[in-house]
Write a structure and sequence with these properties.
Two copies of one chain form a homodimer.
Chain A: H1 5-11, H2 15-30, E1 37-38, E2 46-49, E3 58-66, H3 70-77, H4 83-96, E4 101-111, H5 116-132, E5 136-144, E6 154-165, E7 180-185, H6 194-200, E8 209-210, E9 215-216, H7 217-221, H8 229-237, E10 243-246, H9 251-254, E11 264-269, H10 277-286, H11 290-296, E12 301-307, H12 312-318, E13 325-332, E14 341-344
Parallel strand pairs in A: 4-5, 11-14
Antiparallel strand pairs in A: 1-2, 3-6, 4-6, 7-12, 7-13, 8-9, 10-12, 11-13
Helix pairs in contact in A: 2-5, 4-5
């Protein structure tokens, strides 16, 4: 844990401000700590007492990720409170796909110049999302790297570790033709497709209200990455799902095949969910083929759950708070199929 | 694990080259996998079957870190094979301080532009160091982030997770006055002090041989961060050490206090180890006070082990392969002491 005195004093920032920032950061971090977190902050490693009672074969499930070029939007608007949720929730969903419950998280924040207020805003956002996920923030590195990042800019990455019972791991290998696909709505782009979106909106005023969106473009593009933990994990632990897919880089078309067994395809019916207005705006303004849109964006579906038809009612009930709905089904892969995910009626 | 097709195809690189690179990367990653690594690469989360047999109270010990501005030296020399060892060994040593054995690692590589050869060189270096540490590389993210990094440049961070028995955790709390300090030599700057070193050598030719160093400045500055796992872990597991300190940011003066109980200080005798020529060169050329040198650099000692005097012989024997030697002792902290680490005879 080096969200600590060292990093600040070396960066030569105002010490009183840095102390206040450090205290604010520490309080937020400490609020994520339960009795499993051992030792004081500031040690060389974060300590987490593992409770595997009740598990026959515990499996640790881990993922590392960044926020990507969505950060540029945060820089433009000078708003740094939401990127932490983007980072944490992305990671939470990644291990959720395997059926894992988050245990702890560590973040890496590299700044062009040490700015205590900015670093505090980012880390408090990380801590708040960790707390929301029941996940302890047990480590972090805040590095001033002049010459790497422009002043006022930074990169942010993080690593999550979760736990699952081996025979309850969800891999997708049991998915079969006839399985139902339940889609959980996204809140916006989440953390993918920003390089394309930013190119489309390069000349746009991020602060001006856009009636079609009901908010400004900046607010829309900073909509947080949603976590599906609360809805999906109980269903996975109850053995009601055959597979899950987090719709990240690669969009609606390239992510489901990461869990789909050979010989199977997915048919989605775009009439069954709301392709959010932001995606229609990007498509129209950028004059982008829908084929490409489908491979870059989540198009309104942030997470897919595969289940047997006989469990559809239970899965819909369990995901109702997140707006879960039946969006398609698993089919055999046609011999001449171009893609393994076909979206009908989107254009 | 997104060291995968997606990242490459989206970046629009030559597909044949990317495929070859991906294969090379995958082979290196797979070589770190033992039977505890479950599932295929390319899933959403890395899976590690945890074996806690023989442990009464397993504790996970974790750390996240970057390589820092040492990367700029790698960019200057276009050499990307060694930064992986810097990253991994730094993390290995951080959790080693707590007495933890590495289980697995995940890396985050963010590039200005996707360059398959460069990414492969970096990730192979990460994988080789993981293999050396008996640590599985179970996840990674390779992100092309144009606009964040200059073409040909990147940032690299990583996260390690290790395991320890709770009542064998080493915290330093049992260190007491009279304990002996065993120092393990560093190979150079490791990963700290590069912003200062690069400022000092801003005008220097990195390729020209420097007689005083026995190699070029570039070779010297890229000397890898050394791992002390092989020597220190068996001693910790045998209960022979009272504390350990990894000499990273904050140098020889600010790191020992991270594990030293209140009221204690450390006295080091600079005549007992070699203050490597690179540090004398930096000090002379930059006209830097030794006080500052001591707070920025490891000055030739990468790792300290604290032990009782009656265990000194065993600890020296156990660290002989790494060049361990007695470099000082723990003393009571004098009431008017300015620093908790005093280095005698260095100037």
């Amino acid at each position: 844990m080096t969200h600590s005195a060292n990093a600040y004093s070396r960066a030569g920032v105002n010490l009183d401000a840095a102390d206040a920032a450090k205290r604010a950061m520490r309080e937020a971090i400490r609020a994520t700590h339960g009795p499993q977190v051992l030792g004081a902050m500031g040690g060389f490693g974060g300590l987490f007492a593992l409770d595997t009672s009740g598990l026959r074969e515990p499996v640790l499930v881990s993922s590392i990720d960044g926020v990507g070029t969505k950060l540029k939007v945060a820089f433009s608007l000078n708003r740094h409170e939401t990127v932490g949720a983007d980072l944490v929730n992305h990671c939470v969903n990644d291990i959720l796909v395997c059926g894992a419950r988050p245990l702890f998280f560590l973040d890496y924040l590299a700044l062009g110049a040490m700015d205590a207020d900015q670093a505090t805003a980012v880390v408090r956002g990380v801590a708040a999302a960790c707390r929301e996920a029941g996940c302890a923030l047990i480590g972090g590195e805040t590095a001033a790297m002049p010459g790497f990042y422009s002043p006022g800019e930074y990169d942010l990455a993080g690593c999550i570790v979760g736990l699952a019972e081996r025979d309850r791991l969800v891999s997708g290998e049991n998915i079969r033709a006839g399985d139902v696909v339940i889609g959980l709505p996204s809140l916006g782009l989440h953390t993918n497709g920003y390089s394309l979106a930013r190119a489309v909106f390069a000349e746009a005023d991020l602060s001006a209200p856009v009636p079609e969106l009901g908010r400004s473009l900046g607010d829309e593009l900073l909509q947080p990455h949603r976590s599906y933990l609360r809805e999906a994990l109980p269903l996975a632990e109850a053995g009601l799902v055959t597979g899950m897919a987090h719709i990240t880089g690669g969009g609606l078309v390239d992510n489901p095949p990461r869990v789909l067994p050979d010989g199977l395809a997915v048919r989605l019916d775009a009439a069954t969910w709301e392709v959010l207005p932001i995606f229609r705006l990007i498509q129209r303004q950028g004059n982008i083929f829908w084929d490409e849109m489908e491979r870059v964006f989540n198009l309104g579906l942030g997470f897919l759950i595969f289940c047997r038809p006989e469990h559809e009612t239970q899965v819909l009930a369990g995901t109702a708070t997140a707006g879960g709905r039946r969006v398609g089904e698993v089919t055999p892969l046609a011999p001449d199929a171009g893609a393994r995910v076909v979206i009908e009626g989107i254009a």
